[in-house]
Amino acid sequence: MNTAGFAKLLIAADAEVAVWFARGIEANRNYPLLHFGYAAALALLGRLDEAQVAAKTGLALDPGVTIRHMKGVSVSGEATFVAGIKRFVKRMHIAGVPEG
After folding, report:
1. How far apart are CA 12 and CA 97, in angstroms?
2. What pLDDT sits at residue 27?
3. What is the pLDDT of residue 100?
4. Calpha distance 77→18 (Å, rounded)
5. Which residues, in sequence order, are CB contacts of 25 under 8 Å at separation 6+?
């Protein structure tokens, strides 16, 4: 569900992103990356208060996550992937993840 959520995020299938991350959280509430993905998805949908709650939940599970940490994730130079990561990082910032 995490992989599906990030795949939808990367291709800008915004209506589906939050659904996949919410399903993942239902399956495993202790996996921080799901909460960060959900926060980004909610920010994409303009649900900023909920996005901030999701980011805080992710940070409670993994307080070391920062925007700088997320920017460092680059396993592909493919243009769609790079653009998707930039969208993700921008939404994480909006959701309240610290710059670090």
Report:
1. 21
2. 97
3. 83
4. 25
5. 31, 34, 35, 38
Q: How high is the pLDDT of residue 76?
A: 67
8 A C-beta contact, residue 51 and residue 29: no
pLDDT along the chain (100 residues), means of 10: 89 88 96 94 94 97 90 71 84 91
Residue 2 in contact with residue 33, Cβ under 8 Å? yes
Q: What is the 3-state secondary structure (H, E, C) of 27-49?
A: HCCCCHHHHHHHHHHHHHCCCHH
* Distance (Å, whole) CA 4 – CA 16: 9
The C-alpha atoms of residue 23 and residue 77 are separated, in whole angstroms, by: 29
Per-residue confidence (pLDDT) for residue 74, from 0 to 100: 59
Report the distance separating Cα 43 and Cα 37, nearest Å. Answer: 10
Which residue do the tokens 């919410």 mark?
Answer: 22
The dihedral built from the CA positions of residue 47, 49, 55 and 57, taken in this order, carries a sign that is: negative
